[in-house]
């Protein structure tokens, strides 16, 4: 199990120490939520802060683009140091998906595709061969601290079954409302990567919080 703490719930005034505190846990990834106030009703951070994080850490940078027209900014996030770039199925035209994956792969980075809670998992299946990861949103994207939506568990299960059936090298990531309880359900359903924002960053003992998700 890979744990990807989301910096959206970090103390932004002390971002460097916050990242160091995650390095001291068993988490291998750091999740970076980009919001544009258009695809989602909230704003977060762009590529410059990612660039600073890249200089501060060797954690795997898991960039989640919750933005319209991701093609416009893809290059900038790759240049800023993303290891994986995930864009949303709902934000692109169907015929763009393979091309965006190719751009990411040409940079030697990993490509992910995400679906919102209302989007059926079937839409990603034609792209599994191209994808390194599918991100199943278990809350409406836009805000940390929301409650996990159990309907995502069926999506995780059928996605995992399709990946195993095709013997694809594609990870299943789950994002939103993950805590020590929902982590068990997500894991049992087939998740490989768990994103956790508030559960990890608001914990008094972050090492224990991450360990409880493994
Ligand atoms: C929500 C973001 C999540 C968020 C998760 O739109 O994509 O990554 O940080 O936060 P928690 O774990 O608090 O639900
Ligand atoms: Zn996210």
Could you please describe the fold and organization of this structure?
- With 214 residues, the protein is an alpha/beta fold.
- The chain is built from 8 helices and 8 strands.
- The mean pLDDT is 98.
- Helix 2 runs parallel beside helix 3.
- The termini are close together.
- It has an 8-stranded parallel sheet.
- Helix 3 links the parallel strand 3 and strand 4.
- It has one domain: Aldolase class I (TIM Barrel, Alpha-Beta Barrel), CATH 3.20.20.
- The radius of gyration is 16 Å and the shape is globular.
- The protein binds D-xylitol-5-phosphate (DX5) and zinc ion.
- D-xylitol-5-phosphate (DX5) binds at residues 6, 8-9, 31, 33, 64, 139, 141-146, 175-178, 195-199.
Key features of this structure:
214 residues, TIM Barrel, 8-stranded parallel sheet, globular, binds D-xylitol-5-phosphate, binds zinc ion
CATH class category name: Alpha Beta
> Strand portion, in percent?
15-25%
What is the CATH third-level topology name?
TIM Barrel
| Strand line-up across the major sheet | 1-8-7-6-5-4-3-2
Stretches where pLDDT is under 50 for at least 5 consecutive residues are none
Can you summarize this structure?
The chain is an alpha/beta fold and 214 residues long. Helices cover 33% and strands 20% of the residues.
């Amino acid at each position: 199990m890979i744990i990807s703490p989301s910096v959206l719930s970090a103390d932004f005034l002390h971002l460097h120490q916050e990242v160091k505190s995650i390095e001291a846990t068993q988490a291998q990834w750091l999740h970076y939520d980009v919001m544009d106030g258009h695809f989602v009703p909230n704003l977060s951070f762009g590529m410059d802060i990612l660039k600073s994080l890249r200089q501060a850490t060797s954690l795997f940078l898991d960039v989640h683009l919750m933005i319209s027209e991701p093609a416009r900014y893809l290059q900038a996030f790759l240049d800023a140091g993303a290891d994986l770039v995930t864009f949303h199925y709902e934000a692109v035209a169907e015929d763009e998906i393979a091309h965006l994956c190719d751009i990411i792969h040409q940079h030697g980075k990993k490509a992910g595709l995400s679906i919102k809670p209302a989007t059926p998992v079937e839409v990603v299946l034609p792209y599994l061969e191209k994808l390194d990861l599918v991100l199943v949103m278990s809350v409406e994207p836009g805000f940390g601290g929301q409650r996990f939506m159990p309907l995502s568990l069926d999506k995780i299960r059928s996605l995992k079954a399709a990946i195993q059936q095709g013997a694809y090298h594609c990870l299943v990531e789950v994002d939103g409302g993950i805590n020590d309880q929902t982590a068990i359900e997500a894991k049992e359903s087939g998740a490989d990567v768990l994103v956790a924002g508030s559960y990890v960053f608001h914990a008094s003992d972050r090492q224990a919080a991450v360990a409880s998700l493994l």
